[in-house]
Amino acid sequence: MAESRSLWNAMLGAEVVYRDAAGIRTRCLEAGAGPVLFLLHGTGGHLECWAHNVRELSRHFRVVAPDFVGHGLSDKPTDLAYVVSDYTAHLRALMDSMAVERAHFAGISLGAWVASWLALESPERVDRIVNCTGGVFRWPEGQEQAEAHERRAMVRTNNALSTVTRESVRRRLHSLFHDPAMCTEELVELRLELYSLPGVPELLPALHNMIPYDSDARRRFALTQERLARIQAPVLYLWGEFNPGGSVRSAQLAADVTPDGELHVIPGAGHWPQWERPDEFDRHTVDHLTRTPVRTP
Fold first, then answer.
1. How far is CA 185 from the centre of its chain?
2. Any domain includes 43
3. Distances (CA, A) of 107 to 35, 141, 259, 290
4. How many other C-beta atoms can be found within 10 angstroms of the C-beta atom of residue 197?
5. Measured between alpha carbons, how far is 70 from 87 in angstroms, rounded to an integer?
6. 248, CA 20 to 30 Å: which among 209, 235, 236, 272?
7. How do residues 153-168 score in pLDDT, each as one tens digit?
8. Per-residue pLDDT tens over the stretch 218-255
9. What is the pTM of this model?
10. Residue 61 within a domain
């Protein structure tokens, strides 16, 4: 059903709210009531990637899907490095502006990386995490080489965004899907419009500076075995079977190292299982986040 519904039909009943996060005007999609669940998009993304999940998840949680700083229709300061710590600072400021002390977090790719790093920096603010294809792990040298080939296609499509065209945007989005037919032209058109806003084409290289495996930013903030072992929050690694950003094998290693980690693989999905297999994604997310009572702010 995901590919047949327009974005706004899918998000019917949700509200777009602009919040001030320590001076950063932040666009959020919000719906529901109860324990707070932040839905965090990936690199170069925007809140609409959660279009097919918000209605179902809002039956159980107060869902908040923000555009990260520099992304979507949130503010885009030019003095940030756009590394993981910038995003966690933005996220804490957003939580403070909403008087949210603790929350759940479900993230795709960069969003999962940010949620994991927030759990390291501010464990008191994180209840449970769903890491959806956030394969930003760094293993010992022999294992690193075995994983590197899986990221080459995604790096190539990011490099192609040096010139923003409909085709370059389409290729980038198609790289996120196991079945590119699931990527609607409406989604392509939306991202093209967002990437064509004044100042955005010039900002895109900074937003993508952490994707190359050997980049300084990725080395500084990668989820090493030692860091994964320090995450106190229960983490569900919810993995697309054909995720181009990190293999199922790598996700299993991460789940084994994380003190309260587990892995579930979604068959027939790539980097965006929340879109390609929304029913399965939502079911496992709700199950993971509702296993024990949580605080409501």
1. 21
2. yes
3. 17, 27, 19, 17
4. 12
5. 9
6. 209
7. 555 555 556 689 999 9
8. 889 999 999 999 999 999 999 999 999 899 999 999 99
9. 0.93
10. yes
